[in-house]
Fold each of these.
Amino acid sequence: MAVVVPGKPAYQQIAESLRGDIASGRLPVGQAVGSTAQLMDRFRVSSTVVRKAVEQLRTEGLVVGHPGKGVFVRATPEESAAEAATIADLAAKLDDLRAQLEAIPSKASNDKLTSMGKEIAELRRQVATLQTHLVELYSRVGQPYPHGLTAPEGTGERRIRRA
Amino acid sequence: MAVVVPGKPAYQQIAESLRGDIASGRLPVGQAVGSTAQLMDRFRVSSTVVRKAVEQLRTEGLVVGHPGKGVFVRATPEESAAEAATIADLAAKLDDLRAQLEAIPSKASNDKLTSMGKEIAELRRQVATLQTHLVELYSRVGQPYPHGLTAPEGTGERRIRRA
DNA sequence: GCCCATTTGTTCGTATGTATA
DNA sequence: TTATACATACGAACAAATGGG
């Protein structure tokens, strides 16, 4: 029987317990962590404590809740820590995404996909817009935009110009 | 009079309001944000909503609470944005988006184009979701979204022409 | 030192709205 | 429609820390 002991908030103990289950694999990704009622009975606490513990795991990116279905494991603590990080990582991922988008038309050009080329182009424009906004977000937080991540060339005349 | 309107959770609205006050300097670092009772009277909500809003700011690292004294501003959103973990969501969605982009060329080679059209539609939906999260990221920083793109409709090109 | 009001943090119970099955 | 489940919201209570009398 899982039990909470005094000396530390109950919701933190429950969060640590569930976090350990996720890290050890007893709660694999995609598995439901159990409903609020089940966790209440398991740890012998009120609904408030259970929801607060689950909410903490949700903010950590470990679980995700779906109304009417349940709360499911989304990632392990290691995965979540790798995903987290700074805006720099986000910028790098976005740059990779843009590079792949620009590579698509060349691969699909040998086929009769010209109609879909416009769709791809639209996707590229949207990604380029996202990157532009990300650059602005950089300036607002006072961080320098990492190395020579250039603006998209073929999709527009957008120039990344930072102070 | 600060008032919460329906359509969005009250605790989120209050958190955004206080976050904006911190970002604008109306609540400088070291300043008390006001007791729970004061915020209850100011926003006309229950103690639960106030505590949940303050708790969110605390998890964001903007404020720090001292029992018996009060809750005080710890850092500005810009300062806290560097180590903000709220970007984890954005990074995860970018990973999913990139994974689907990698799957496109293979599908174009050994599959029909009909399924590829659905893939493109799904991609566009995810890019739209990404934009939404970027808007949220802006709000967390305390700055309004520069505007120019909202939800995607049709294939109409959106032109981002901001100063 | 002692009491007491204030304040945060935690916990309890309950109710409502919405989404899913 | 009914039942389940999460998210939000209401109110209340207690412990711990702070500060004033």
Amino acid sequence: MKRRRSIRSAAKSAGGNGAAGKALALGQLDRHLGYFLRRLQLWVFQDFIATLRPMRVRPAQYSVLLVIAANPGRSQAAIGQMLDVERARLARMLHELERRRWVARRSNGADARSHSLYLTGEGEKALGKITRLAERHEARFAAHVGGRRHAQLMALLREFG
Amino acid sequence: MKRRRSIRSAAKSAGGNGAAGKALALGQLDRHLGYFLRRLQLWVFQDFIATLRPMRVRPAQYSVLLVIAANPGRSQAAIGQMLDVERARLARMLHELERRRWVARRSNGADARSHSLYLTGEGEKALGKITRLAERHEARFAAHVGGRRHAQLMALLREFG
DNA sequence: TATTGTTATACTCTATAACTATA
DNA sequence: TATAGTTATAGAGTATAACAATA
């Protein structure tokens, strides 16, 4: 993934003007949990994208594939609400996943408006490879924050989520 | 902020096809800390943006204003590296902040290439209002996840960050 | 040669609105 | 009237590349 220096090391080498060498202060940012959350979340997405690059899968696509796999036959509306993906965005994502022959849409007998979503055989196979890469990412994530902190965060956020 | 239903309630009402009413499974997503992190981070940004709407300030702008306030006179390069904002993006953000008379750029005597960044008087005044709204957001955040969890997350992530 | 700041392009994600076909 | 899906547009954020001025 793209190399990211820690706040401290970045600040240390951030010279180039009159105040060169003095570490930058976070200021009030230090009181905002959202700031730290955002930084970690960016790290995660960057590592995920880099790790999954061989399969050309983005985080949002990955989550859609997993939820279809776990809930075959459900509608776009159901998947979208579950993951908080706008239906407009999901429609275009599914076109792309259909183009790659990973997802199939079948018409739903009970309601002609809705499509039932399934993984194709090819999609299942691809998801196997994708899952192995995703596990590698998760391991790297745990190593990055420390296994203990990773577990603590998981417990805190999963119980909440 | 924009109303977001919980995973559970969204799943409950996600009907409309043959499997209507059955809650959707997270599948392997349940094993990814990044998924829960992302969901919480989205909540935070949406609440932040909604709370700060009266001042028309986005999270990235807010972080830049705070870091300039805490480190007056530093260069764009220093601020950008500190916050991991691309210099190209920061240049355009600063144009906008300059247009609103919140930030001033002065040339740096020691290095004619770099600009020293400062808040204007108007900028300080605006930041005062912004900070009060941001505190309201942070309180809402703590209420959302629970005060105890908010503190635990802050401790975990700040120590790490 | 490398760095600071700028402009430009392209892609992703988010947020809307408008449209169709069904219900 | 409301819902499922589609198409289109606009605004952010991210990632590059190329450039001028300066170091």
Amino acid sequence: MILTRDFYERDTLTVAKELLGKVIVHETSEGLTMGKIVETEAYIGPEDEASHAYRNLRTPRTEVQFGPKGHAYIYLVYGMYYCLNATSGRLAGKPEAILVRALEPLGGIEIMLRRRDVSNGNAANLTNGPGRLCMAMGLTKKQNAADLCFSPLHIDVGEVVDEEDIAQSTRVKVDHADEWRDRPWRFYVRNNKFVSKL
DNA sequence: TGCACGATTCTCT
DNA sequence: GAGAATCGTGCAA
């Protein structure tokens, strides 16, 4: 069953936490790929220096974050990798998003292996990182702004992760020397081997 | 119009 | 553990 809009229209930190255990599904001409979310990070709109929408910066790139919740925000980093986010938040028009940092492959693994061109044969590295999971799921800028409630790219109600299995920490690769750096806005499933970093 | 750099990953040492 | 790959974006000029 697909998550409905109201799931995303809540406090972003809550949504980031509850996204753990949910299942991302992408239907393409190549076939179906699915993966369980095991790691997320929250990026809270204008006041978060680490967010692209810091200071309400509204550009063609960040535009999606200002739109309806429950849409995909996909952007290019380092000129070669994509990152998948879901827009969220209680306030309409406030740019908040959740970065999906890692998945546990559930379906279409053959397709993922092909897309990732896993030369070392290590399937454990298939989706344990924001850039990697986009490659494995076949996500590019084309899916940017896709409605996660309806499109071929959507998120299913998976399993509920026990509170005790949820770990919280500071975000990865956010080194700005200000108060936002140390916010524990990263969530992950404890002891899951597909989490990107411990 | 030009330029420095990033919500990363891979390879080689 | 360090360095390269690689290009769209935001900001200065």
Amino acid sequence: MPELPEVETVRRGLLTSLVGETIERVEILRRDSIAFPSPKEFAKLLPGHSFSNISRRGKYLLFELSNEAGLAVHLRMSGRLLLTDQDKGDGKFLRVRLVLNNRQELRFEDMRVFGRLWYVHPRSSFEEVIPTLKTLGVEPLEGLSAQTLRSLFKNRSQSIKSALLNQQIIAGLGNIYADESLFGARIHPLRPANTLTLAEIRGLATEIEKVLSKAIALGGSSLRDYTDSRGVNGNYQNDASVYGRHGQSCRVCGNSIKSLRIVGRRSTFCPICQEG
DNA sequence: GGCTTATCCTGGGCGC
DNA sequence: TGCGCCCAGGATAAGC
């Protein structure tokens, strides 16, 4: 499932090959995938625009288009953006097709149909169309300091795992990298966020940055549905310490990796290394 | 305001 | 073989 490293990998992959290209035609195969405006308007408004830049905020991909219009994409759990030749056969889960002027097309595939696309009018902004963008927390790769984290956790009695998944605190972390960061910092996922010491928070901030940077360098994780914009799998899953390793031996202490449900999400951890 | 829970959605895995 | 159930999880609304 795409988290910050996977979204960033897609962004970097598309940036080199998509900027400068023009959208000629839009085909919507699943109306649910279009969040704004209506699917009919979406297909009518995008053609003629060219891509001028691609940025990222949390797990949102933000495409800046010509004439100051925009296109936003959230991959959610199983979304993929694939840049392919037009004559290549369609995948089973193709939802939206953006046909380009260079015999290629940008395809949005999404098995679970949770992912969404937004068109942003020239006189509007990404934040106006997607109000959630205004509520997103700090970007973990832009200088995540222990002091910042401490103030964010100060009044939070919820578990640290729950806090890390809260996009209003840190933007971009999901289940995989929250579990991996907590393992690296040796913190139990059920510890209330406001009970962490400054030393623990410092360790956690370091681990978050380390885990995310390493995952980006390895092209993300491909534990289930994710590939990059060329359909290539990431490699981080081979390096995961706890995620997806329930019942296996901890790489540090050798004890069995456990899992439990926290706020509806499976959390995987080592009960020995993450005792406190 | 903080926090948890239910909901959306679909394919894969498993048991019978 | 076929059926039914459970699980995975990001964002959001609803409820406490």
